[in-house]
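Researcher: Next entry in the queue.
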Amino acid sequence: MGGDHAPAEIVSGAIDAAISGGVEVLLVGDPEAIGKNLPAHVPDTLQIIPSHGVITEDEHPLEALRSKPKASIIVAAGLVKAGKADAYVTMGSTGAAMAAGVVAIGNLEGIDRPALGGPFLGLAPRTILVDLGASIDSRPSQLVNYGVLGSVFSKVFLDIDNPSVALLSVGSEEGKGNRQVREASQLFRQSGLNFIGNVEGVDIPLGKADVVVCDGFVGNILMKFAEGMGMAVMEYLKARVPKGTEKMAEELLGELANLTNYVEHRGGGPLLGLNGVGIVGHGRSKAASVTAAIDSACIALDGNLVDLMRRELSRVHLNVLNVKDEQEK
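Model: Structure for this entry, 329 residues:
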């Protein structure tokens, strides 16, 4: 029931996934509203699970969880907890998706709060940014966790064996950045990750690191700046298209939209650090993006994303503790 085009586009994308993806889909929401958007012939692999209420973007997630205990996102996460679903997927409120997942499923050991991460620029489709907005204030140790989670994401989703991890800063030289970045850099060097130091904003579209780590405040601004820049450039170019080249221009502008708003077009990404698979998509997602988000859930499950994150977090935390013990001796 979440997202700008719910439930019509959600239902359409879910049906496509059920038909073509060989996956069973449970549509959680208002049965009447969902029913109005179902075709005459519904796939056997699609089932409606009733819920009551929707948590919107302007509501405080934890307060909404208490006031709307049967909201669609809570019921969906509860299905995973009960073992009746392997993953939940939403185009709705990120805060609600995270809160529902944490309450129902919990976090992996050592994770205070799940992170959002993934490729956000089509110009650098194999470079992921973590965090994209889940946590706006992060301690240095949390940034190291983001590096671990991002590294596992790269292995599972992008098939990169030993992802390079970098910290986003105001300079590439060691020691550059605010206190948060400088302290995190020391921890990264002890982590055993393939840490390559700092990168600057200009390095992201050039693909200079596989995983770029920053707090969610900065990451969300970067992602939305890229989207806005793409929209502005498209409007600029539209006004200057020479006569007779409209068709070619339309194709190029469509490609530009994909390159600068990659998150919307690739469907959605997992809540990294959750003790289960929860996929959050873009609020503006249409049917094709919903289908892609469901496919992302399947990739996470087939690639044992959660177990790999658990093992890697344990290894890195042990490395950091061992170095700290040696230093104290």
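Model: The first helix runs from residue 8 to 20.
Researcher: Noted, moving on.
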